[in-house]
């Protein structure tokens, strides 16, 4: 079953056509990576998926409803690149506040904090956290609502490798329990951790694939090189 379907999605930002017309589907209960260089349109696409982006054309359907429908608010979680937590509250107070909005208990808030590796910093004010810790506090606040679809914009930026691996394990545990995750990254080594890959370049979908298929199509075990080979092959066809 598909959790998300996108048909001919066109988005302009300012005077630029950022997404010319994308079509793809995201299967439920998997981790789908949205990979692409800076400026390729990842955030714009994620904004369209959660219904906060004005679109020029096309349809975005999430869990059977148009993206942004009121009925999806509690079912779709979105963690932006800029952490959306309250600086003047502690990590615990933030998580418990968001838990109360979703009708969840303080215990569930504390579990979400532990899930992102912030248990030791639970009593600290968000204002006193590092950038990476702040991002994880924001992630904890999204996890606490147990959304069916989680859209995460570069959640591992600035994290040390151990923590990155732990978060990816957490993403896969959530997917195994039925959550659909869409995770953006511009680091190709994270592509290998995804079940499926959507590769964007200048707003175009270069690949809708799996890591294994991309390695085969790009004739390289190295995903970055495989991506480049696929891009070059497309350019040769277009020339
Ligand atoms: N508010 C805006 N007005 C005009 N253009 C914008 C706006 N926001 C983004 N853009 C442009 O849209 C394009 C795609 O931006 P987007 O943020 O979606 O890319 P991205 O792949 O998420 O990049 P990054 O990895 O750096 O976050 C870029 O060329 C960017 O300059």
Automatic annotation (TrEMBL):
Protein's UniProt keywords contain Nucleotide-binding: yes
- Single GO MF descriptor: ATP hydrolysis activity
The name this protein carries in UniProt is: ABC-2 type transport system ATP-binding protein
Task: List, for all copies, the residue spans of the domain called ABC transporter.
Answer: 4-227
What Gene3D superfamilies has UniProt attached to this entry? P-loop containing nucleotide triphosphate hydrolases (3.40.50.300)
Extract the SMART domains matched here: AAA
Q: Which Pfam families did the record assign?
A: ABC_tran (PF00005)
Record key words, sorted:
ATP-binding, Nucleotide-binding
Answer yes or no on keyword Nucleotide-binding: yes
């Amino acid at each position: 079953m598909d959790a998300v379907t996108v048909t001919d999605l066109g988005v302009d930002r300012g005077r630029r056509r950022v997404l010319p017309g994308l079509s793809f589907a995201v299967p439920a209960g998997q981790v789908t990576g949205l990979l692409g260089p800076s400026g390729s349109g990842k955030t714009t696409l994620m904004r369209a998926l959660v219904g906060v982006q004005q679109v020029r054309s096309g349809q975005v359907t999430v869990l059977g409803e148009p993206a942004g429908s009121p009925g999806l608010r509690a079912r779709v979680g979105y963690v932006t690149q800029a952490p959306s937590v309250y600086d003047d509250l502690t990590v615990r107070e933030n998580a418990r506040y968001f838990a109360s909005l979703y009708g969840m208990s303080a215990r569930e808030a504390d579990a979400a904090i532990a899930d992102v590796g912030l248990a030791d910093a639970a009593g600290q004010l968000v204002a006193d956290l590092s950038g990476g810790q702040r991002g994880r506090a924001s992630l904890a606040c999204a996890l606490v609502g147990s959304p069916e679809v989680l859209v995460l914009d570069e959640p591992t930026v600035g994290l040390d490798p151990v923590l990155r691996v732990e978060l990816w394990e957490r993403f896969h545990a959530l997917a195994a329990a039925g959550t659909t995750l869409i995770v953006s990254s511009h680091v190709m080594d994270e592509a290998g951790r995804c079940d499926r890959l959507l590769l964007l370049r200048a707003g175009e979908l270069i690949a809708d694939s799996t890591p294994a298929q991309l390695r085969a199509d790009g004739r390289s075990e190295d995903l970055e090189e495989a991506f480049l080979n696929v891009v070059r092959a497309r350019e040769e066809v277009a020339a």
